[in-house]
Specification:
Number of domains: 2
Structural class: alpha/beta
Strand order of the largest sheet: 4-3-1-2-9-10
Number of strands: 10
Strand content: 15-25%
Helix content: 40-55%
Distance between the termini: 22 Å
CATH class of the largest domain: Alpha Beta
């Protein structure tokens, strides 16, 4: 069983980690579009072409499923990709539904990239949940930049989060959604700057469980591989980045 995981950069490693926990014997091909990251601040049509190029590359690797481990890429291209390829394509979306369902009497703050928060897919999700009056959004695209440069220094991140979150009365909120796969790297930093009553959630586990269920339906779930991990940077194997990614997985 061979599973492709695609992201604009390092963020999808947080999804790969969950996938390995659930399906450790699968072979994984990870594609980071490092030449074009970040996606969240670029024009939609430009980003869509990047995504199509990556999906085409991955399809040639005979994958059994493709996880679009990027909320931005999912919001603008997953529907088109499903019309092109016959293997399961699993997308990401901010975990707004569980946040709304478990918020108590508090509001929800969704953090993501600018492009994700502007897209129709996100606004349709809010409308479907009839939650426009209780869900606020905050773009934190700089966290993508920090992660791509392997900046995990607590002091730098906490200062940035303090500045951005100071715009909100956090006592009003019960949940913060990490709506970009880069953001879980900074979960502990979020915890240090928000009140203790706030839950911090992401969609990674739900996405991986959905992938497992789809593979089971197609009866390839028991077709195990060797547990290999292969990494590509914009279509080229990158041994130095591979080592850094493996270090993060550890």
């Amino acid at each position: 069983m061979r599973i492709g995981i695609f992201d604009s950069g390092v963020g999808g490693i947080t999804v790969l980690r969950e996938a390995i926990n659930i399906l450790p014997d699968a072979d994984y091909i990870y594609y980071a579009d490092t030449e074009n990251v970040p996606y969240g601040t670029k024009e939609k049509e430009v980003v869509k072409q990047y995504i199509f190029n990556a999906a085409s590359f991955m399809a040639k690797k005979n994958i059994d499923a493709l996880v679009i481990a990027c909320n931005t890429a999912t919001s603008i291209a997953v529907r088109d990709l499903r019309g092109i390829y016959d293997f399961p394509i699993i997308g990401m979306e901010p975990a707004v539904k569980p946040a709304v369902e478990n918020r108590g009497n508090k509001k929800v703050l969704v953090t993501a990239t600018e492009l994700t928060l502007k897209e129709e897919k996100f606004h349709n999700l809010i409308d479907k949940l009839d939650s426009r009056d209780i869900v606020d959004s905050l773009p934190l695209s700089k966290l993508v930049e920090y992660a791509e440069n392997f900046i995990f220094d607590n002091e730098i991140i906490i200062k940035y989060l303090d500045e951005q979150l100071s715009k909100y009365d956090l006592e009003e909120y019960g949940t913060i959604v990490l709506g970009c796969t880069h953001f879980p790297f900074y979960r502990e930093c979020f915890k240090k700057v928000v009140p203790n009553h706030i839950d911090i959630i992401d969609g990674n586990i739900g996405t991986v469980n959905h992938m497992r269920n789809l593979l089971a339906e197609k009866e390839v779930i028991n077709s195990y591989g060797k547990g290999s991990r292969t990494f590509y940077s914009s279509g080229k194997e990158d041994k130095e980045r591979l080592k850094r990614y493996l270090d993060i997985l550890e």
